[in-house]
Amino acid sequence: LNRILVVDDEQQILRALRRALVARGYEVATATDGKDALAELESFSPDLVVLDLNLPDMDGIEVCRRARTWSQVPILILSVREDEAGKVQALDLGADDYLTKPFGIDELLARVRALLRRSRTEGSPPPRFEVDGIQIDLAANRVRRDGRDVHLTRTEWSLLEAMARHPGKLLTHRWLLEQVWGRGYQEDVEVLRVFVSQLRRKLEPDPARPTVIVTEPGVGYRWAAVAPEGG
Amino acid sequence: MSQDVDRSSAGHLVRLMRPPRARRQAIGYAVGLVGTALLVAAFLPFRDEADPLAKGFGFLVVVVAAAGIGGIGPGVFTSFLGFVAFNFFFLPPYGTFVIGTWEYVIVLFVNLGISVLISILLGRATERAEAAEARESELRTLVELSRELVVRPPGTEAYREIIGHVLRTFGYEAGALFVRDTTHAGGLREEVSVGCNVGEISYEWDPRSKERPPERLPLSIGANNVGLLVLRGVRPALTPAESRILRAFGDQLALVLERDRLLRTATEAEVYRQTERVRQSLFAAVSHDLRSPLAAIKATVTDLLDQDVQRSPGDLRESLEAVDSEAERLNALIANLLDMSRIEAGVLQAKLETVDVSEAIDSSIRQVGRVWPGVAFHRRVGDGLVARADRVFLDRVLTNLIDNAARASSVGGGGVDVVAAHTDGRVTIRVVDHGRGVPPEARELLFQPFYELDQRNPRLGRGLGLAIAKGFTVSMHGEVWVEETPGGGATLAVSIPASEDGG
Question: Are residues B298 and A103, on separate chains, in Cβ contact within 8 Å?
Fold first, then answer.
């Protein structure tokens, strides 16, 4: 039984989400402000947090920052279209994904399932993927396409690894740049773009319509390939 | 400006403007001439008694006087005059320029040399003193004008006073200040004119015209031209000193004009920034308030559409009720926004008719009760109370006031009382809550639109509702205000004219 903490200052949305999540077998706790949210995070110890950015006492970004100082619980951000900047900031601080209000409950449930699955597999040995005739073995540092080795440069490898180790998670530009190039390069989004398109040319069956490295416009990229269970 | 300051500044300008050289030199020459003549006349009867050398010192006194008054010229002139007169009248043989003894020749020329030397030294000292005095007076004038410029608050009135001061100081009759304005034809706009009508002095001057050319003082900072000061009047051409002062003053005036312009720009920018801030939080608030119910509806409805989930009839009903109340909330919000824009656009037209106050209150309580099912409402309304009001407006006013009270009570508890009474031709309805109350300093602001807007977390909330209540009440010739509820909480009161048909 998975435990989900929903944080939103709008009672009506809290009730709607609680109804929908309880009906699907999740155990749900709710909080209406940042202070409550952090308290519940400790006492309820949820497996996932659904966090609205717009809270009365401290904003969701701050909740995110404080939560991440001691907890790695997956965080799904709820934002409105006017708060693009806040959304990216929260993701940079370690939130895992976001949804823009208003959203359909099916969308929310899909994100919730993906995040919970990912957090279960985290810490397991480096995954191997096989998608559309491409085999990626992170443990062996090897990529094969149609049975032949694909050569990747050192930077391309680090980028591939940074993404593939977090399947399904929305990775922001800043985060990827820091992982691959280090601090001080977090603003060079163009460089990242160039390397992503090189990777896609080497990996994707159809680089024009990527299915493995998916673009999240204005935010970052998502590694969409799924590791086979137990693999 | 006091008369004293006026006179004193005119005083040292007079000192500055007097033609010192010509007049004082003339006096110097006269003193030399007359003094020498008197001395000759005085000494002549005794020319055989005293030693001729002693008489020579008498002439030295006249030289000092002439040089002291008139400077080098009169001094040297008097020296030679004395030399000739002494020789002619007092050195034997008398009446000739022939000198008898060598001793006398030496005395005569030493005397002349001393006289000329004294004249030159005295003349130089006098010149220096004059120059220092002139410089000091120049500075004093400039300092006075500068102080005027700096201490006055920016604005046309200040420019008018300062130009008036310049006119009086320099003896002009009229003046006009033009400032650079690129939106204006010719690039210059007349800022202020003193001593003449607006437009009478032009910033252009036709060299062919027979009129006296006005003094035109360009005002610039570096290569940047900021304006032009034109002074008109009958007075002699400016002396170099006056011209210097005027130019220095022009430089300062240019700086002040520029300072005032920058100040204005900064103020405009600040006003714009404020408006922009309010506009943005208003936008965020509208977007949040519209989207929240919509998000709840969408989440609930998409949940209901999922047929894989088993639901009890109770759960199903709860979901549907949630959708209904959220739709109601959206509807109320949109009505509020439309009402507010009608009030702000000034297109409200109350249709006044006789309205049963008791009925209006019941209807509003019913509406609000649906939104706040947990709040208890009590009404105390006299029988047959009728007001002259717009039925729809009154309903909106009461609904908003009661909704506001219900919201306050939902936190503090205690329920909402609605009390209506007829006094002095007016019906007063009081909506009493026992919530946290409104601090006195916020009572006026409560009815401002978006009073409750919080920068960081914008919500339209009830701020809009009370502003609408006020707008509608005013359009019905009514008043609305806040009182303190005895024992804690706020009482919102509305008073409208009673109808003459009943009551």
Answer: yes
CB B311 to CB A23 under 8 A?
yes
* B260 in contact with A, Cβ within 8 Å: no
Q: Which of A8, A11, A12, A55 to mutate to test the interface with B (most CBs of B within 10 A)?
A: A12
* Spatial contact of B178 and B199, defined as CB atoms under 8 Å apart: no
Place of tokens 């709607």: A16
Question: How many Cβ atoms sit within 10 Å of the Cβ of residue B174?
Answer: 18
Q: How many residues can be counted in chain A?
A: 231
At residue A74, the 3 state secondary structure works out as coil
- Is the pLDDT at A85 greater than 70, yes or no? yes
* Cα–Cα distance for residue pair B319/A88, rounded to 1 Å: 33
Distance CA A69, CA A223 (A): 25
Q: Which of B86, B87, B67 is nearest to B78 (CA)?
A: B67
The type of residue at A199 is: L
- Report ipTM (2 d.p.): 0.73
pLDDT under 70 in chain B at which residues?
A: 1-21, 50-54, 278, 281, 412, 449-463, 501-503
E strand or H helix that includes residue A17: helix A11-23
Q: Which residue has the tokens 């009760």?
A: B369
Buried b or exposed e, range A87-120, using 16+ CB within 10 angstroms: bbbbbbbbbbbbbbbbbbbeebbebbebbebbbe
Residue with tokens 């969701």: A60
What secondary structure letter does DSSP report for A217? T
